[in-house]
Amino acid sequence: MPLVDVNSESELRKFIESERKLVVSFSSSNVPQCDHVYSVLKILSEDSADPEIAFVNVDAVAVSEVAKQLKVDSVPTVLFFLSGKEINRVSGVDIPDITKAVMNLQSMSNGSSNDLASRLHSLVNMAPIMLFMKGSPEEPRCGFSRQIISILRSNNAKFGTFDILQDEEVRQGLKSYSNWPTYPQLYIKGELVGGVDIVRELAESGELAQMLTIS
């Protein structure tokens, strides 16, 4: 589906609440970097052979209430949805990450036919370094998540995150998938590293820095 410009909050909500895969770019005509992201998404939308995925561009000011609810505080920011739930976001003009996120979204199954194991596999491989946590890096919802974010940032790691509080299916399913009962969970190249205690030990020994470099 070609990239669509949406100008109202009600129309945007309809897209988000739909059962389809969705890419939403929050932009502003006053920010030149948004034009670059727009051009890339336009090409990706035209090249996509997946009939289930929709690409939408919105002016962040025109949909300010929705932007606030989704905690979009800068442009350009691109959000990725599956069955009405946000599964990833990319802030700024990071074209490789945007392209990879689109490819990952296209590879996922949608709706009630979604195979959970396949979805979890896609999620843990969403980024080379992937953290499943409570809340977001900007607003951690538990002390352990806050600690592991601090450790990763102190090692200058670039990582993706998933808020397990926003998706109960993933929250419960990942425990069985990884055979690890608690959160946060850190993955590197799709492999479970562990929780905050293990990550802290690896950081103190210097092994974590090496693992992050290899990734």
From TrEMBL:
Keywords for this protein: Iron, Iron-sulfur, Metal-binding
Metal-binding in keyword set: yes
Pfam families: Glutaredoxin, Thioredoxin
An example Gene Ontology molecular-function term: metal ion binding
Record carries keyword Nucleotide-binding: no
Domain Thioredoxin as annotated: residue spans: 8-94
Protein name, per record: Thioredoxin-like 2
